Amino acid sequence: MVREPWGNCSDMARRRNHYEAAFEAYLKSRRVPYIAVDETRRTLFTQEPIKSLDFIVAPASGPSWLADIKGRRFPSGRGRYWTNWSTHGDLQAMAAWEKVFGAPFQGLFVFAYWIVGYRSPLPSAQLWSYRDRWYAFLGVLARDYAAWSRPISPRWETVALRGSDFRRLARPAQAIFSAGSDETMAAGDAPAPALRASG
Q1: What is the rounded CA–CA span in Å between residue 84 and residue 161?
Q2: Strand, coil or helix: 111
């Protein structure tokens, strides 16, 4: 099932995890056209058994995006920063979706970091507030992630970028989805907190 751009966010918040709901609220606030993909109706796009996308995002200018949201805490357990693991299945699915849609669509892993400490992956003015939580959205092109990631668990078939590679390849959502409002990402429902950017 697909949903019209700027659909009912409260409904999505009930059906999706908070990372996806926060990202959808961000897209709405900036008036970036998108479609939220319902995993149970993915055959609207393809008959192949491909892991679902989360959003199809089509700004007024520039490329269109096939976005897979990766919700992570910042920091994660044991004080780890820049956690960015994914799976081989995610990489294969994204490559398949890029073939289904073709140009100008590009695969994008959006790491939605829920800020749970005193450091942030972005300056505080670029954070997004949603339901009393703060998020930082950073995107990495799927092809770059595939090229630079390395195995971290053969058993779970997971891969990740080194922290230095992630910081080099990732771009803030504000730079990727530049169409629409000129307001900063801090235009959520609360003032941006005083956090220290984590280099």
Answers
A1: 7
A2: strand
Q: What is the pLDDT along the chain (199 residues), one digit of tens a residue?
A: 334 444 444 444 445 699 999 999 999 999 999 999 876 655 556 666 788 889 999 998 889 999 999 999 999 877 789 999 999 999 999 999 999 899 899 999 999 999 999 999 999 989 999 999 999 999 999 999 999 999 999 999 999 999 999 999 999 999 999 744 443 333 344 445 555 556 5
Q: Which residues contact 109 (CB under 8 A, 6 or more apart)?
A: 67, 68, 70, 86, 90, 94, 139, 140, 142, 145
The number of angstroms, rounded, from the C-alpha of 38 to the middle of its chain's C-alpha atoms is 16
Dist CA 164 CA 93 (whole Å): 25
Tell if the pTM clears 0.85, that is, is over it.
no
* C-alpha span between 81 and 6 (Å, rounded): 32
Give me the CATH topology for the region 9-197: Trna Endonuclease; Chain: A, domain 1 (3.40.1350)
DSSP structural state of residue 193: P
Domain boundaries, the chain: 9-197
